[in-house]
Amino acid sequence: MGTKTKKSKDDFTLEAYNGIRRMFFSNEIIPGQKISYGDLAKRLNMSTTPVIQALKRLEIQGLVRHEPNRGYYTENISLSEIIEIYDFRELIEVSLLPDTISGMTKAKLKKLKKALDSHLDAVRDIFLKDRLIKDMEFHMTLAELSGNRIRVACLKDLYDLLYLKYRGNILFVTPMEKVDDEHIRLYDNIASGNLEGARTVLAGHIAGVKAHAISSIERMNREKNSNTI
């Protein structure tokens, strides 16, 4: 019989970190909420130490903040932040296209097509979370094919901030048919080696999603203000 490997402190911290991330993604933790690390520890069935370490890591990512003598809170939804995220997304993703296209191979194109098909299948499903994941995977696959590790890591952090902090009904307000069409046209331009066409489609796609997200947040803010009057 084999011996069971004992978990290290880092293992428990990573387990707590991933568990809290899942709570963000499933809206069990929402923007503006006070976080009880004792409650999180109970829900994750572990001690408070790895939970606190995980929260510190999430604080660095901008998902939570720590207030001395008060504890941890999730950050509120911010219109200026969402604008900055999408602007940075566009800057990174478009900048990766030249390397992606110049280094394209049949195997890489097949990988991108698989990610595209997976997204197209998911967007016809009723589960919003699945659409979010597949959309992110398509964009991340495209970015990773560039081979630029640092910019891809930055992009992953942006997606974490977007998809963990901002609910799907904010991010996925763009008509599905429009997203489908833009992803297909982006793939077609990349497959044909049309860099300028790919840049135009990708930049327009991100700008359009950003505009819908801004509109959604502004509507939420108006509804919130009207309810407080």
Structure description:
The protein has about 230 residues and is mainly alpha-helical. It folds into 2 domains: about 10-75, Winged helix-like DNA-binding domain superfamily/Winged helix DNA-binding domain (Arc Repressor Mutant, subunit A), CATH 1.10.10; about 80-229, GntR ligand-binding domain-like (Four Helix Bundle (Hemerythrin (Met), subunit A), Up-down Bundle), CATH 1.20.120. About 75% of the residues lie in helices and about 5% in strands. It has a 3-stranded antiparallel β-sheet with strand order 1-3-2. The longest helix is centred in the last third of the chain and has 34 residues, at about 195-229. It is globular, with a radius of gyration of 20 Å. The model has no long low-confidence stretch (mean pLDDT about 85).
